Amino acid sequence: MPSLDQQFQQACDAGDLPGVVLLASDKAGKFKYEKAFGLKSPGEKIDINATFILASCTKLMTTIAAMQCVERGEIRLDDDVSTILTELKGIQILTGFNEETNEPLLTIAKNKITLRHLLTHTSGLGYFGMNPLLSRFFSTLPPTRTANTPLLHRITSPLLFEPGTSWEYGTGLDWAGVLVMRLTGTSLEAYMQSHIWDPLGIKNITFHQELKPEVRQRLVTMTKRGAKKKVWSKPSTSGEKVEWTNDILYEDPCAHEYGGGGAIGSATDFLKILTSLCASSTSVLLKPATIDEMFTPQLAPSGQRALTLYNAALAETKTFTSRKSSTKLNFGLGGLLVLSDDETGLKAGTMTWSGLPNLLWTIDRGSGVSAFYAGNVLPFGDFKSHEMQQLFEREVYGLAAAVGVAVGSGSKL
Question: Is 166 a catalytic site residue?
Fold first, then answer.
């Protein structure tokens, strides 16, 4: 059977993938895997220092920033954030529409939104491009949501349920980013540079490509599978080869800093963040107790049911990021928690999440292994990317075990 490297090279040579960077390491420094396959742009080979649109991988960094604010006593996880995010005072819940007039039906939320809600997607905030109710709501409004629309206007929407009563992927981390900026009196860029990137020696992550020319120079060219597919389309089912595209996900230069998805950076630098959290006791980012809280299941049964249904819908078609439907899941502060051992070798207690162009990170504290699959394909959910990411995940545990990493040591929960 072809090796891991051979299978990725074959996939790239065949046009099934463009370019991909695969990274993994253990917290003790015994094991490191760093490989790049395929192309960065037409005719140009990719290398491990390539930079990517990190998209929702940004959420982990914003969570770290927010938890640092908690550690300093600037806010508590269960505080009402509307005292700082005053735009959320009196927020309404969208319950449906009057079918005769198409007017939205709205009611004032009774529960207050907390920082914990923002970090765990239990606030009731959603993404208008992903939720049909919100899509319909915004279709009734004047078309003012453009690239130049202010950040707060673009992330402001009614809720989909009472805060704390369910789970819906949405703009909570964008609001958490605004919260960090207001608490600290600085931009997310400046804050993360001082409190996350500099402590780990990270030079090639930013919200503003114009500030770091090397990030711009090394940025991969976007690709898509399916010529007619839009950024927010469902993944192609036709098995087309990938093709280079001029689709732009971020403005450059960029005036806004979205805590939920605005960063650009190198996979190698992002892995430093994963490894630091994995090595909880020696992390320079957060106290061990804070990291333990991040990896503690946060969802009540109602939220866990909603999350499980979300994953099951993806798992049915083997969509990128999905876990098999029997997997026990919850959500931590920063990402999805996998609460049962996975067939790939990933252990119960692992935290993971993804980014729009089919990137995915994992932190498995039970085995001490962190990994990052940095892909570059639109739309999100790409089936071939899922197949190859799962292959990478399986092989990583075998490679780590071969150098003496105890990958079967179990959950840290």
Answer: no
